[in-house]
Amino acid sequence: MIEVRGLTKRYGEVLAVDELSFTVRAGEVTGFLGPNGAGKSTTMRMILGLDAPTSGTATVGGLPARAQPAPLRAVGALLDAGAVLPGRSAHHHLLALAAGNGIPRGRVAAVLEEVGLTRVARRAAGTYSLGMKQRLGIAAALLGDPPVLVLDEPLNGLDPEGIVWIRGLMRRMAAEGRAVMVSSHLMSEVELTVDHLVVIGRGRLIADTGMAEFVAAHSRREVAVRSPQAAGLGPLLTAAGARVRPSGADGLTVTGIGAAEIGAVAAANGVELHELTPRQTSLEEAFMELTQHSVEYAAERGETR
Ligand SMILES: Nc1ncnc2c1ncn2[C@@H]1O[C@H](COP(=O)(O)OP(=O)(O)OP(=O)(O)O)[C@@H](O)[C@H]1O
């Protein structure tokens, strides 16, 4: 379990992380979301003990990362998948990590197998594709068989197969009872994978919620309607209990009643329809609405520099 309490980081004028408090629970994948520059990496680095907080605390299993007697056994991390000596093979990279952390050599073969790199384990890591480097980074994170995993943007730059693989791995790790924290700046990357969401903007907590609750609160059903008589149809739908927004010259966006009901109202009034499309608003839109203010702030801040 990761516990973050009142965590704050200031870099000179920039308040990168501002009084953040949240918990990453065992047995769950927690998505850590925020627009670029929101403070995700800084928060993760403090959780991992790579940066010191200005104030507040971050603990893993009850202890700050720097106080862990065996850090790699307490928490596995993927920060920058490119950070491997290019001349060193995956096998030797992992062996060196294991030796430096008192981890049995046998774990090396086990994690290479887990991430599917066994066949190329003797090749220099500099020749690996981004997806293979990402797998090697994950292998290093898993080496100490830690109960907590912290993954910073693990899907960045991966092809669809790599994305599916990492999503499956995160689910598997949570099912084994581990606490998994994964950052992203895209809701669509994590919405199918995470159990819990922590959203930040400008270093501050914006939302801390179960994924199911977030979906229930933010996914709206709406129907796109097009008709040459849109102007006349609007009030008829409103009278039937719908909320109606105009959309272009001959379009309406309708919520509150379904496509069948809209069709019935149109037919009963002799209104010709050219389109009647039910659709679900995306969670990406909800996420963007939620973080809009912090993005605008970031843009303004950039302009005045
Ligand atoms: N070492 C540093 N020195 C000064 N400012 C920093 C440093 N590290 C981060 N910052 C600033 O802190 C803020 C948060 O950055 P951070 O990298 O944590 O955000 P992020 O959410 O991870 O963004 P991204 O999605 O772009 O990686 C930004 O304004 C950034 O410029």
Automatic annotation (TrEMBL):
Gene3D superfamilies on file: P-loop containing nucleotide triphosphate hydrolases (3.40.50.300)
Keywords (A to Z) from UniProt: ATP-binding, Nucleotide-binding, Transport
Keyword rRNA processing found: no
A GO term for molecular function: ATP binding
Domain ABC transporter: 2-227
Keyword tRNA processing among UniProt keywords: no
InterPro entries attached to this UniProt entry: AAA+_ATPase, ABC_transporter-like_ATP-bd, ABC_transporter-like_CS, P-loop_NTPase
Residue ranges of coiled coil: none
Family designation: Belongs to the ABC transporter superfamily.
Protein name: ATP-binding cassette domain-containing protein
Organism annotation: Streptomyces hoynatensis
